[in-house]
Design brief:
CATH topology of the largest domain: Rossmann fold
Radius of gyration: 22 Å
CATH superfamily of the largest domain: HUPs
Helix content: 25-40%
CATH class of the largest domain: Alpha Beta
Shape: globular
Number of domains: 2
Largest sheet: 7 strands, mixed
Length: 343
C-alpha cells in the first residue's frame, strides 16, 4: 500500500451505512441500532475503517485488513472523540475485546471492568471511577449490614416502596440509586423526585443520583457480540463487576436487594446473574455482596405490581386503578404533571 486513507468524514443517520455494515461483518462485529453517527476513513473508493458513537460510548471500531498497522484505529478514535466533544460529551466510554486494551490505552482510554477474554469497558480518564467513588464515600454510613438497590422507577409504585421498606427494616442503612438514562416515559428528574418522596418516611435510606457506572447506555456491548445470550451475559457481567469492585466498597454495601421478576425474562436473568457476579468469590478479588431477592408485592387481585402496568393504565386514563398500586405522592405527581393523559 503506497499511502494511507485520504478521506476521513462523518456519516449521519440519513447516509447509507451498507459499506460500514459490510466492514463490521467482515471484522466479526455487529452493529447496534443506537449508533448516532460514524466517522469513516476511505482510501480512494475503498472503506478503510470506521468508528461509531452512541451517546458517550464509542462502538464499532473496525479497520480493513489492508490498512491495519497504520495507526488508523487511533486516528479514527481521535476523530470520534472530537465529534463527541462537539456533541457535548467529554466523559467517554469504549467497549472492546480485551486483546485491544493496549491499542486503546494508546488512545487515552483506561480499563474499567473486564470479563475474562470476552469484553472490557474502558473510559477516557484514569481517575473517573475513583473520583465518583470518592464522592460516594462521603455518604457512607456505619453498620454491619448495608443495603444497596438500583431502580428505574418508571414510575415509582407501591412495589418499589415495599422493596425499599423491606431493605430498610433488614439493614442499618440502605443506598438507592436511580437509573439516570433518559429513555423512559418519565424523565430522570421526575423519577428521581418520585423516589425521594416515596421513601422520605424511611430514616435510614439515602437516594443517590444515577451515573454512567450503573445500568447505563455505556454498559451495553451488543455491537460486538452476535450471540444474543452472550450479549446479555456480558451486559450483566460488566455492570455487576463495576458495582462489586467500586460502588459497594465505596459505601460499604454488603447486600444488594432486588424484587422478584415474574414478567420480564431479561430482568429475571439479570437477577440470576447477580448471584454469579456479586456472590461468587472467584469472580472478583473484592469481597462478595450478598443478593437478597424479595417477593414482589401483589395487588388484591394477586397480580404483581409493575410500573409497566401503571404506564398502560395511564395511557388508558384509568386513574382509579392507578391509585391502588402507587403511593399518594406518585399519584399526586401523575395527576398534576400528566393532565393530558389523565383528562
Amino acid at each position: 500500500m503506497e499511502s494511507g486513507p485520504d478521506d476521513v468524514r462523518t456519516l449521519l443517520g440519513g447516509d447509507s451505512l451498507d459499506e460500514v455494515r459490510a466492514l463490521l461483518d467482515i471484522s466479526g462485529l455487529g452493529m447496534d441500532a443506537d449508533i448516532d453517527c460514524f466517522v469513516v476513513a476511505h482510501h480512494g473508493r475503498q472503506l478503510a475503517g470506521c468508528a461509531g458513537i452512541a451517546g458517550n460510548t464509542i462502538k464499532c471500531v473496525a479497520v480493513a485488513e489492508d490498512y491495519r498497522g497504520d495507526n488508523l484505529s487511533a486516528r479514527l478514535v481521535g476523530e470520534v472523540e472530537n465529534l463527541a466533544l462537539r456533541l457535548g460529551h467529554s466523559h467517554l466510554f469504549l467497549y472492546t475485546r480485551p486483546s485491544n486494551i493496549a491499542l486503546f490505552k494508546g488512545c487515552g482510554f483506561y480499563p474499567l471492568a473486564q470479563w475474562d477474554q470476552v469484553a472490557v469497558l474502558m473510559e477516557n480518564t484514569p481517575v473517573g471511577i475513583t473520583l465518583y467513588c470518592r464522592t460516594l464515600a462521603q455518604q457512607r454510613h456505619s453498620g454491619a449490614r448495608i443495603g444497596g438497590m438500583v431502580m428505574n422507577a418508571n414510575p415509582f409504585t407501591l412495589g418499589h416502596a415495599y422493596l425499599a421498606e423491606q431493605a430498610s427494616a433488614l439493614c442499618d442503612w440502605v443506598h438507592i440509586f436511580v437509573v439516570r438514562e433518559d429513555v423512559s416515559l418519565f424523565s430522570y428528574t421526575e423519577r428521581l423526585e418520585m423516589v425521594r418522596q416515596g421513601v422520605a418516611h424511611l430514616t435510614n435510606v439515602t437516594v443517590h443520583h444515577g451515573s454512567d457506572y450503573l445500568i447505563s447506555r455505556a454498559t451495553f456491548p451488543g455491537y460486538f457480540l452476535r450471540d444474543t445470550q452472550l450479549v446479555s451475559q456480558t451486559y450483566s457481567a460488566i455492570d455487576l463487576l463495576i458495582f462489586r469492585q467500586y460502588i459497594a466498597p465505596a459505601l460499604g454495601i454488603t447486600h444488594r436487594f432486588v424484587g422478584t421478576e415474574p414478567y420480564c425474562p431479561v430482568t429475571e436473568q439479570y437477577n440470576r446473574d447477580m448471584r454469579v457476579w456479586l456472590e461468587e468469590p472467584g469472580r472478583s478479588a473484592l469481597p462478595p455482596v450478598s443478593v437478597v431477592e424479595i417477593p414482589r408485592k401483589c395487588q388484591s387481585s394477586g397480580w404483581a405490581i409493575s410500573a409497566s402496568e401503571v404506564r398502560a393504565l395511564l395511557k388508558e386514563r384509568q386513574m382509579s386503578s392507578i391509585r391502588e398500586i402507587v403511593p399518594p405522592c406518585t399519584f399526586a405527581f401523575l395527576t398534576s404533571h400528566h393532565r393530558s393523559e389523565c383528562a
